C-alpha cells in the first residue's frame, strides 16, 4: 500500500458544503503485520451525530488501475463509503431538489477517511492507486426499478478537478453519456 495512513487519529466527524454529507476521520491501528480499523461502529458513529445507517448491503468495487473513474450517480438510499486498499479522489454533487442543487464537494478517501452520503447526492470517484478496493454500505437493497439520477463526469458547470484527466482515465462510455447539470431533473423525496 503506497498511500500514507495517519495512525492513531481520533474518530471525528467533519461537515461538508453539501447538506448531510459528512466526512469521518477513522482511527487506523497498524504494526508490522498491517493495519486494523473499525470501519462502521454504530454506537460510536451515531454518538458523533452521524445518522444510524442501518446497513442492509455491503458493496465492493475493485479497481485495477490508477485513474479508474466511476459515477456520477445519485441513488434513493444513503451510503457509507470507504476504501479497504488504496485511495480515491471522491467527488459529490447535490442532485436533490432545493437550494443546494449543483453544490460540489471533493476529498481524498484513504483507509483513515470515510464519507457518509445522503440519498440524492451524486457520487463519483477516481482511483489514485492501482489495486484500490472501494467499499460502501447502503441502507436499501439495490433494485433495477429504483429511480436514479445521473450527471456527466465532464460537466463544465460543476468542474470537478479530476487528478487524472478524463481523456487519460479508465471509464465507461455509459458514464460519459449522462446528461449535463442543466438537463438533470433533481431528485425529490416526500
Low-confidence stretches: none
Task: State the major sheet.
Answer: 6 strands, antiparallel
Q: Return the structural class.
A: mainly beta
Order of strands across the widest beta sheet?
Answer: 1-2-10-7-12-5
Order of helices and strands: EEEEHEEEEEEEEEH
Number of domains: 1
Question: If you had to describe this structure to a student in words, what would you say it looks like?
Answer:
The model has no long low-confidence stretch (mean pLDDT 93). The chain has one domain: Jelly Rolls (Sandwich), CATH 2.60.120.10. The protein starts with 11 loop residues before the first strand and ends in a 14-residue tail after the last helix. The longest helix is centred in the first third of the chain and has 7 residues, at 42-48. It has 190 residues and is mostly beta strands. It is globular and about 50 Å long. It has a six-stranded antiparallel sheet with strand order 1-2-10-7-12-5, with no helix packed on it. Strands 9-8-11-6-13 form a five-stranded antiparallel sheet, with no helix packed on it. A two-stranded antiparallel sheet has the order 3-4. The protein is built from two helices and 13 strands.
Amino acid at each position: 500500500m503506497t498511500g500514507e495512513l495517519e495512525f492513531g487519529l481520533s474518530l471525528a466527524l467533519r461537515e461538508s458544503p453539501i447538506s448531510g454529507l459528512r466526512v469521518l476521520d477513522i482511527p487506523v491501528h497498524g504494526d508490522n503485520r498491517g493495519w486494523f480499523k473499525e470501519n462502521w461502529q454504530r454506537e460510536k458513529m451515531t454518538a458523533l451525530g452521524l445518522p444510524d445507517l442501518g446497513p442492509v448491503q455491503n458493496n465492493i468495487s475493485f479497481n485495477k488501475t490508477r485513474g479508474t473513474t466511476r459515477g456520477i450517480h445519485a441513488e434513493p438510499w444513503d451510503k457509507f463509503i470507504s476504501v479497504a486498499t488504496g485511495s480515491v479522489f471522491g467527488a459529490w454533487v447535490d442532485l436533490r431538489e432545493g437550494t443546494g442543487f449543483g453544490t460540489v464537494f471533493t476529498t481524498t478517501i484513504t483507509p483513515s477517511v470515510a464519507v457518509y452520503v445522503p440519498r440524492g447526492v451524486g457520487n463519483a470517484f477516481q482511483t489514485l492507486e492501482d489495486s484500490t478496493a472501494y467499499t460502501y454500505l447502503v441502507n436499501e437493497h439495490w433494485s433495477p426499478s429504483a429511480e436514479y439520477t445521473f450527471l456527466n463526469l465532464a460537466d463544465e458547470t460543476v468542474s470537478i478537478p479530476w487528478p487524472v484527466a478524463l481523456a487519460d482515465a479508465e471509464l465507461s462510455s455509459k458514464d460519459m453519456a449522462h446528461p449535463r447539470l442543466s438537463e438533470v431533473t433533481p431528485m425529490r423525496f416526500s
